[in-house]
Amino acid sequence: MKADYDNYTLLSYHHIPDVHRLDVFESAGGYEMMKQFVGTDPDKIKEEVKASGLRGRGGAGFPAGVKWGFFSKDRLAKKYLLCNADESEPGTFKDRYLVETCPHILIEGMVITAWALGTQRGYIYIRGEYYHQALVLEAAIKEAYAKGYLGKNILGKGFDFDLAVHRGAGAYICGEETGMISSLEGKKGQPKLKPPFPAIKGYRGLPTMVNNVETLAAVPWILRKGAGAYKAWGTEKSPGMKLFSISGDVNKPGVIEVPLSIPLNDIIEKHCGGMRNGKKLKAVIPGGSSAPVLTADEVLTTKMDYEDVAAKGSMLGSGAIIVLDETRDMGQVLKWTLEFYHHESCGQCTPCREGTGWLEKILKRGEAGHGKIEDIQLLDTVAANMRGRTICALADAAAMPAQGMVKKFRKELEDYIVRG
Amino acid sequence: MSEVKTTPPPPPAAPPVPKEKVKFLWNDKEIEAKPGSNLLKAALDNKIEVAHYCYHPGLSIAGVCRMCMVEQEGVPRPFPACNAVVTEGIKVRNDTAQIKAAVEWTLQLHLVNHPLDCPICDQAGECGLQDYYMKHGVYDSSMIDKKVHKDKVQDIGRNVMLDAERCILCSRCVRFTDEVTVTHEMGIVNRGDHSEITTNDSLKNYYAQNLVDICPVGALTSKDFRFKQRVWFLDDVDTTCIGCETGCSVKVSFNKNDAYRVKPVFDAAVNGYWMCDDGRSVYKHVGRADRLVTFMENRTGLFLPAIEKEVVGKLKEKKKNFILSTDLTNEEYAAFFSRLKGESVNVALYSLPEHKLEDGRDFDGLLRRSNKNANLKGAEAAFKKAGFDASEAALQTLVNNLKADDAIFIVMPEVVYNEDHLETLVKKVKNAGSKVALTSNEAFYFMKDFDYLLPLPTFLEKTGTMLNFKGLERKLNRAKNTWGEASKTVASYAELMFGE
Questions:
Q1: CA-to-CA distance for A43 and A45, rounded, in angstroms?
Q2: 3-state secondary structure string across B424-473
Q3: Is A328's Cβ below 8 Å from some Cβ in B?
């Protein structure tokens, strides 16, 4: 079976049975781009990716080509390429689906990126819970080594690239790139102070490029069809295709690949078969649990691209869409969210360490029947004062949903906190 | 623990930066600093008060307390000053409404799970939380929920007590054991507001008390000091440690006549920001109950107070021999020798024996040295200048030639590491007719055969200079305490013996 490059970029191979096997993947068209581009001018590859406008798919949405531009230009210097497969944001499961079905698309993307950036060694940092996926990746890497696509002198082009899988131990914060680097170094998974940024001083103090699975896996397609074809999808600022992982109260939850800027309502109604059990839509968390909530009215007008979701006061994040129907208690949704961030705060910076716990306590006190009407304001104030004051974005990730909920569902939150 | 290095790095030195200075604005005040130097340090060095907990000039940057946030013109987001460097012409502010709110709220968040047990906390009075609360806080706490509780009374070794609840997790202690002692003994375990500092076993390094100094709150306190004094009753005197030849700059805290603790004072030339644990106890003899403060005479085994005139009268006609210690000031040696001019007298120097470090070395690479003579260099110079021999051989000659009509005056070392060695010397002078011990310390058991005990001032009761191991002049300052007749120096006794 042949790959479907016309309708998909990342999921072009996913309809093919056994595509996790290298021979199946290759006969479908895989590794063609690696053979074509490894050994060619690395600057051309970087320019193509930059021209495509591909934005980092981990959540922050920083243009990948620009990030590559910050990287050391010295090809001989020791450098690392890390693939962030930690995917710890609640609601996100796109990378899991991507690699468990078709691991070689990631390996191909990493070999090309490694060649473009001149890195000699790479790691795929995969979250600890993805045990099966780690085995799939390891088997695929073994196949690629046997075929000479990894290791010394790849394709006889005099290019060495070693790749290994490293499993995390289950910490959310290791999905933050510097937290991931600390973890990979064998230290406690805590983000590092920036500057210096990893592109200058990262893993083991050496230049390190960290990209998300989805970002790296998109590279072969961009080279195959060109930046122009990629930009044909989406908007000026959010070009291309994106994986969305949809969970919650819809009939068909799962992972889809659609062009950016698709109406959110289309995703729910067309791709996910509408609301489950005929219930009414109440709210959507559009970008993983750290994104502020959107009301049902806002959902109707929201287009899923970086700028439109931001204009609605939320964020596209990792593309994890959590759909909530009318039966959901927003106080409880917020409580679970805050409990998660309290549990996952690494404890390094004071505002996050103390603030995440405080937010959770306010809600739980309300739940236990000891809430006061002023607690809503307190919740908002504490959250506001955690934002932008920490090393990484975990404090913001906890504060944003709290503030979003206060803003959009204040009435319901009052019911929850004051009346238990 | 495979990373433990045998030689810890030398005291922290400023990174090499070009000599010329740049100017920048901090809240519109023009400040000069070396380009590339730390922004927070530049401000602090220019007497600008900036709230901070985790930053310490002798340690690496952690950037976790988030108190020193500043705004810079042209930079979109506030950032911590401790992780920024000075460049020409930058305009930095920390007096805007936004930053003030950030500092106040970050402080409030520091206190959310703090037990606020100031009334029983030893840090009270010199606590970063109290100080900044009065300056940046002064709000009513909005926190009414249950606080996170942690272990309060933990003996983590080397006289250091840990109260995990009071800890604000600034990580200074962790960085100290990682970077200064390179023993990696402290760490932070658990996550979020359950994080706490802990040791893998118990502290074993010989600099552990520095952890108490650098702890900005009352989490790490000294077992030696805790519950003894309130810090606002203490006065400090800047002086020099007499524990060994290194000569660290220290301050000794005292209240009335008693000293209570020794802390290091920054001195780039000698000790940097630190001092060793041995030096922490050099104050102990100053206020001890059995310290000699009056002239004492041996009345058949019982030492009783004596009258100065009588003692002097009995000793004056004898042939006098002096054995000096190595911990007197240069000025004391000079005054002593100048008084001896024209007199027939023997003088020798007793230097403390080498006190090897635990691993048999002479120097641990940081501050501790096996040579415990505080002013050996100064003593040798003074002996040479006065025409006396300071060698060990000269001491033996003096001791061996003592006769029945001789009087021997032994100046006892202030800090005695090896009592057996001192006892050996004391036993050798038994031939002398009159044996006199001059001491600022207790009366040791081996002095029981002495005829007279005369009091001396301790290092805290004198002003003067000493020369440390590399010949650097170190200053001693007098604290405002008095110990009766113990104000007489060695030179005063020489005056008494040889005067009219």
A1: 5
A2: HHHHHHHHCCEEEEEECCCCCHHHCCCCEEEECCCHHHCCEEEECCCCCE
A3: no
- Note the pLDDT of residue B292: 87
- Name the residue facing B106 among A346, A350, A391 (closest C-beta): A350
Q: Do B83 and A195 lie within an 8 Å CB cutoff?
A: yes
pLDDT of residue B492: 87
B169:A350 CB<8 A:
yes
Q: In the structure encoding, which two tokens stand for residue B450, read together?
A: 């002495």
Q: With CB atoms and an 8 Å threshold, state whether B64 touches A171.
A: no
CB contact under 8 A, B190 and A347: yes
- Chosen for mutation from B65, B107, B109 (greatest number of chain A CBs closer than 10 Å) is B109
Q: Does B116 touch chain A (CB under 8 A)?
A: no
pLDDT < 70: residue spans in chain B:
1-19, 482-486, 500
Q: Cα A90 vs. chain centroid, distance in angstroms?
A: 11
Under an 8 A CB cutoff, do A385 and B101 touch? yes
**8 A C-beta contact, residue A42 and residue A116:** yes
DSSP code for B246? T
A193 closest CB neighbour out of B61, B69, B109: B61
pTM score above 0.80: yes
Where residue B442 falls (left for φ over 0; alpha for ψ -120 to 50; beta otherwise) is beta
The dihedral over CA atoms of A228, A231, A233, A235, expressed in degrees to the nearest 10, equals -150
Q: Could you tell me which chain A residue has the CA closest to the CA of B195? A: A347
Dump pLDDT digits (tens) for A2-42. 899 999 999 999 999 999 999 999 999 999 999 999 999 99
pLDDT given for residue B500 in this prediction: 67
B115 interface with A at CB cutoff 8 Å:
no
> Per-residue pLDDT averaged across A345-368, rounded?
95
Residue A88, CA distances (Å) to A131, A180, B277, B468, B479 in order: 14, 11, 46, 58, 61
- Contact of B112 with chain A, judged by CB distance below 8 Å, is answered with yes
Between β-strands B464-467 and B91-93, what pairing exists: parallel, antiparallel or unpaired? unpaired
Return the bridge partners of B69, or none.
B80
In this structure, the number of other CB atoms found within 10 A of the CB of residue A166 comes to 16
Tell me how far apart the alpha carbons of residues B432 and B401 are, in angstroms, rounded to a whole number. Answer: 9
**Residue-wise pLDDT tens digits, A358-396:** 999 999 999 999 999 999 999 999 999 999 999 999 999
Does the beta-carbon distance from A353 to B146 stay under 8 Å?
A: no
Query: Hey, what amino acid is at A343?
Result: H
**B354-383: burial string, b at 16+ Cβ within 10 Å, e else:** ebeeeeeeeebebbbbbbbbbbbbbbbbbb
Reported ipTM: 0.92
Average pLDDT for residues A132-158, to the nearest whole number?
96
User: Is B269 near chain A, with CB under 8 Å?
Assistant: no
Average pLDDT of span A165-189: 94
Note whether A215 contacts B: Cβ–Cβ < 8 A.
no
| Min distance B42 CA to chain A CA atoms (Å) | 19
pLDDT of residue B1: 37
Which residues in chain A have their CB less than 8 angstroms from residue B69's CB? 389
With CA atoms as reference, report the closest residue to A106 among A138, A77, A132: A138
CB within 8 Å: A361 and B146: yes
Rounded CA gap, A96 and A221, in Å?
A: 19
Interface touch A356/B143, C-beta < 8 Å: no
User: Does any CB of chain B come closer than 8 Å to the CB of residue A351?
Assistant: yes
